[in-house]
């Protein structure tokens, strides 16, 4: 059974960068479109990026477009999220998940994803 684990979170100053990784156990990620999400305290889970199984197509939420980049790292069998120009409003727990509809990203709706990881905390603060 495919399980996902997120890593790379931490504390960073405004304007800084972090790189998150989503790695699997039980199965490879090669067959799946993978999404990244975040959830801040008291807020709904927000889809922020998704990448197709081939890595060719990606979609982003407007809130992160131009600052975050999702990519596949095949040697590590991971899906990474490079986050630049971080701001305090980016503070949240970040999760990755598997797209259930197909091998391309049809949406960033959490209901279209499963196999959620435990999350990694990102805190942006001076």
The beta-strand count equals 11
The overall average pLDDT, rounded, is 95
Radius of gyration: 13 Å
What's the N-to-C terminus distance? 40 Å
- Tell me the overall shape: globular
Strand content: over 45%
In DSSP terms, counting alpha (H) and pi (I) runs of 4 or more, how many helices? Answer: 0
The structural class is mainly beta
Largest sheet: 7 strands, mixed
Uncertain spans: none
Q: What is the H/E string?
A: EEEEEEEEEEE
Residue share in helix: under 10%
**Quaternary structure state of the chains depicted:** single chain
Give structural notes.
The structure is a single chain. The chain is an all-beta fold. The protein has strands at residues 3-7, 10-12, 18-25, 34-39, 46-51, 58-60, 68-73, 78-83, 92-99, 113-114, 120-124. Strands 2, 4, 5, 6, 9, 10 and 11 form a 7-stranded mixed beta sheet that branches. A 4-stranded antiparallel beta sheet has the order 1-3-8-7, with no helix packed on it.
Q: Which characteristics define this entry?
A:
mainly beta; seven-stranded mixed β-sheet; four-stranded antiparallel β-sheet; 0% helix
């Amino acid at each position: 059974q495919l399980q996902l684990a997120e890593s790379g979170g931490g504390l960073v100053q405004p304007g800084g960068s972090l790189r998150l990784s989503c790695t699997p156990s039980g199965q490879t990620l090669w067959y799946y479109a993978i999404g990244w999400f975040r959830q801040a305290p008291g807020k709904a889970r927000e889809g922020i990026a998704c990448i197709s199984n081939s890595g060719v197509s990606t979609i982003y939420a407007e809130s992160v477009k131009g600052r975050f980049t999702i990519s596949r790292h095949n040697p590590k069998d991971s899906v990474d999220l490079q986050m630049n120009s971080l701001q305090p409003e980016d503070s949240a727990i970040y999760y990755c998940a598997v797209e259930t509809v197909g091998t391309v990203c049809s949406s960033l709706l959490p209901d279209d994803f499963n196999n959620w990881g435990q999350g990694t905390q990102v805190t942006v603060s001076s």
